[in-house]
Amino acid sequence: MFICLGPSSADLDYHEIGRSISTLMSNPEFHGIAYRAEGRKELLSAINEFLDSSIVLPPGNWDRNSLLPFEDLKAKSDAIRRRQSRVALPKITADQKALLDSDGDGDGWKKKDDPLRRTKIPFGGLYNDIKRRFPHYLSDFRDGIDGQCLAAAIFMYFAALSGAITFGGLMADKTNNLVGISETLIATSLSGIAFALLSGQPLVIVGATGPLLLFDESLYTFCLTADIDYLTMRVFIGIWLLIIALMVSFFEGSVLVKLFTRFTEEIFASLISLLYIVESVMKICKIYYKHPMMSLMSYAHEYCLAVNDTMPCSFTTVLSLVENSTVSPLLNTTARNFTTGLETALLEKANQNSNSSGHSNSTGMSTYFEPPVQNEPNTALFCTILALGTFFIAYYLRQFRNSKFLGRSARRALGDFGVPIAIVLMVGLDYFVPGVYTEKLKVPEGLSPSAPDVRGWIIPPTGLERSFPVWVGFASVVPALLVYILLFMETHISELI
């Protein structure tokens, strides 16, 4: 679909522009270039190539009969080309057929094996992968020292790290912190190292994805409903995954990847992008729900209720309470400073009440009362700025790659590292604005599970909190088969791309 936007008062015939585009798109060569073009320059080059291979007639009253000779010449040239190709086919001798059917391309190179052809022997595809990759195994390590490879490795590191942290945080929310950032980081690291050392396609990034997040969320909900230990069931699903993967490799099931179409690849790519967008919007909506934008009196009322629901909460009372406290210099026109002073003043008031009741402690007033994080001013708007800022910086740095500024290497570097640059800039902005509360990811200190009080790193197959039914271990083959289909399609689609 071509959409042309322009002023209504311009002396242009937009219908003629549409007819011109229709003529261009009817040409197969231009049609293919137009769909692959990423910028204005490529489209202009395609138009110039189209004009070079076209017959351009000057303006005038051309009769259709006068154009017939051009059509006759074109038809005759096509007929001559077809006749010559038919005459050339019988000239292929038996010796030439033998040369064409033999291994090689005529220049001394052996004919490449088709990796998607069945060998009809057990683990034949695995054997061919090992045979094809083994001669290049050492060179892969030597080539990694190259500067371009190091830049690509750094980019892949940030891609894997950001994905692991993002999906780890989402999994922690979906699974009540049974699987969190620590688990996704360690799993991404170990599986990435093993996959890079032993796989036939070491450039594939292994990690948590959107479909697997949806699967884990559904599995956790099912386990809660059926009163089944979620982590133990995950152990049995992993065991069945290993068995299914060995069976597929035994029967060369990887050849089914040739049935995947471009439509299948685009579905998975759209699903992952859509999941990122939906989760980001939902997270911002939750922030607006927890920290809604309210008037100054509403903030004061919330802090009053946090300390004592019987404390008078009129605006005059609140102002006098802050002015008579030790934090009165903080009181100014900003809402953040007002609530900061109000919170401290209410803490003093609460501790005075506690001391008058005979409760004293020398450790400080925060011992008596530490209110939970109430509605914080500017939090919702600031989080919106951080989210949109990250997106627009990454997007425009990606577009900057096709611009005319700086050198080619600088543009490519900024385009490749647009996402980590955007994340670092927005995290720095959040760090240098300490007056606004923003929710941070909860990462355990050191190498510890996300919920150390619930479990350790080793999950017993017999169950954590309750005995695990034996029949559930065998029934886990059904979800294992479903998740293997996801893994199979995601891995092979990535290898095809």
TrEMBL record:
GO terms for molecular function: monoatomic anion transmembrane transporter activity; solute:inorganic anion antiporter activity. The chain crosses the membrane at residues 150-172, 193-215, 235-260, 267-289, 379-397, 417-437, 470-489. It is a multi-pass membrane protein. Keywords: Cell membrane, Ion transport, Membrane, Transmembrane, Transmembrane helix, Transport. Pfam families: Band_3_cyto (PF07565), HCO3_cotransp (PF00955). The keyword Transport applies. It is found in: Cell membrane. Belongs to the anion exchanger (TC 2.A.31) family. This is Anion exchange protein 2. It comes from Lygus hesperus. The gene is SLC4A2_7.
